[in-house]
Write a structure and sequence with these properties.
about 450 residues; alpha/beta; Immunoglobulin-like; Rossmann fold; six-stranded mixed sheet; five-stranded antiparallel sheet; elongated
Amino acid sequence: MLGLKKFFLTSRFFVLFGSIVGLFVLSYVSEVVFYVALACLLGAVAITLFDAIQLFRFRIGISAQRITPQLLSLGDENPITLQLHSSFSFPVSVEIIDEIPVQFQDRDFSIQLKLEAQEEKALEYKLRPTSRGEYLFEKIHAYSKSPLGLVCRRDSVSADEAVPVYPSVLQMKKFELKAISSIATQAGVKKIRRLGHSYEFEQIKNYVAGDDYRSINWKASSRKGELMVNQYTDEKSQRVYALVDKSRSMKMPFNGLSLLDYAINSSLVISNVAVQKHDNAGLITFSDNIDTIIKADRTPKQMNRILEALYREKEHHLEANYEKLYHAVRSSLDGRSLLILFTNFESQYAMQRVLPLLRKLNRLHLLLVVFFENGELMDFANQSAEATLDIYEKTMARRINAEKDAIIQELTNHGIQAIKSTPEDLSINTINKYLELKAKGMI
């Protein structure tokens, strides 16, 4: 009975025997056709039995093993590897069906390939999870057919495995090297020209052409007999907090992820960059209440604390309470810090309601407001109109984009740093702004 569960007939089998049935129908017209059909039937049965014996004379036909990362990164293409081994002594056509997690809602996932006799092969495919949580992989099924292709054999491998989906660790590692490098040349992460110098002295070195003459150390130059200059480095041990709004305004989906998921990924990236820059990284998440507060630190375990906290965050259906955020900042943060607020202002009115509290936060700390713009809406607004309705829709799209610009302008007028970004460029733009503020000595 177990063998029968592995046994399948292919479409080629039904075409062959269907044709033989047709010959038997024609034998009512001619007796000669009957004998031809009978010979074909016997031959087809013999070939089918031979094909089945060839496939099932091996205890294991195709063995498979799945190799997954320890965790999957939210919103990224994560590689999954299948290691296959054929025990057959002849080439086979194989269809691999991997039971991927139900969160992907892919009911037709399969991979077609050919394996030579006794061949081992590694297959790689990629999955892009769009929600955090635990993803369960189940069995791997391999359907094998010989060159005759009349019978199919199924080999199933129990490969149950639960893999958690965390905020994007891949993005964190990707931007880490770019931001830390003093000569980052790849598009996106840019080196900011320093205005003057930071306040932290590093060393005295020989003067070379291009050094700021205002940094010349005249006492050291007179002792050495040649020009010496003071060299400064980025001021360290600053506090950088990511403030993540989890209210209903962050539930808007974009390319499969919610705005909150993009903010969470960027919070992880900027926290890691801050730690690598020898600053202290912290986290505050809020909606109608304050949910998480992680004090700024740069110990080896700090990034794990932030990662675990972001993994558990969920959207809320209520409005964000900025008064509670203000009081939490007042009571929990000691010393001036850079506060990077990830939120989503859809209108100027929504921003003006919380502007007094944002100004209070900015008086105590350096506040950077990061909110979203809709890149698809911008592209739509720039398209040519072909009908009256198109003119109305594109006018409204331009009005929405103009309102976003007005929000930035008003925040800037009140001394608050602000940037808007499309979701896919959020991490890059946030890092650039952080490096700019740090280079200007504002934090």
